[in-house]
Amino acid sequence: MAMRQTPLTCSGHTRPVVDLAFSDITPYGYFLISACKDGKPMLRQGDTGDWIGTFLGHKGAVWGATLNRDATKAATAAADFTAKVWDAVSGDELITLAHKHIVKSVDFTEDSNYLLTGGQDKLLRIYDLSKPEAEPQVVSGHTSGIKKALWSSDDKQILSADDKTVRLWDRNTMTEVKAINVSMSVSSMEYVPEGEILVVTYGRTIAFHSAETLEQIKSFEAPATVNSASLHPEKEFLVAGGEDFKLYKYDYNTGEELESYKGHFGPIHCVRFSPDGELYASGSEDGTLRLWQTTVGKTYGLWKCVVPGKNFVCIFVKLSCMRTCQNLSWVNTHFVHLTKWIFTYENLCSNTSVSL
Fold this sequence. Notes:
This protein is an all-beta fold. 0% of the residues lie in helices and 51% in strands. It has strands at 8-10, 17-22, 31-36, 42-45, 51-54, 62-67, 73-78, 82-87, 93-98, 103-108, 114-119, 124-128, 137-139, 148-152, 157-161, 165-170, 175-181, 186-192, 197-202, 205-210, 216-221, 226-231, 237-242, 246-251, 257-262, 268-273, 279-284, 289-293, 303-306, 313-321, 329-332, 341-344, 350-355. InterPro entries: WD40/YVTN_repeat-like_dom_sf, WD40_repeat_dom_sf, WD40_rpt.
């Protein structure tokens, strides 16, 4: 008897979810941040999707969001011409970095001391977060707006993508090492440090390149336009989502389609595997995030597999509370949990639901 994929739906956003990122595994689990056109990035517990808090301060759509490795800091990129750095424990805004145009991408170095940004002004900027008032290092060379910019090779190199070009830069010399052109507009880019692999999507193509040389390793064609793809940490599978509202799971070695699921009610804009590879998250035009099991039927997080005799059923139990409010107070409680936030607000409500 085949198990049916039952995703966890994470609501709370009011407009399309356009980017998401996981932290590394910390002593307190791992965490998930989402960027949304509603201008209110959200932090969640990574394995359950439970809402932890909303970062309030941007005045426009948020196009990019990321967490540092231990989930103590967050960074966001927005249409209000700023990138912001946040304390991910207290929720406080720490730094606002003014830009001259829309910011699309943010990425921390491994030590969290520097922030890389890219956006519509075609420039890469590197900020020293210990000196936020200082002018950033600026790297020019892109000929159209930058869609994604990522540190690579132990922060010694930078990978960036504009409309139809992917570029590799040397951090020390701030010069371009190599550039490759693709046939259609780049829709997403993911850097996989284990193995130095770069995942690039454009049109219906999912391409894998060496992150050190940009030489192509392999590529697959999807049945519909792909907006995002992610490679499993153990490089066994990849998942992709796009314009047909469906998520596809492929065998990385053969390219064979293993599974496909339709759960969203709009195009999928972003998809990422969790750091332990047990689930993957997707964000959509429908304003929701959904968490999907890599191995359907396995007991993990909120998914519980019950096996009475020969029959079995997989359920998830979800406890949730109201996810938006106007009067939100953050209380930092280090003594309870490094990233456990307590919120006080009017009209507290909660509900419990069981989905089969």
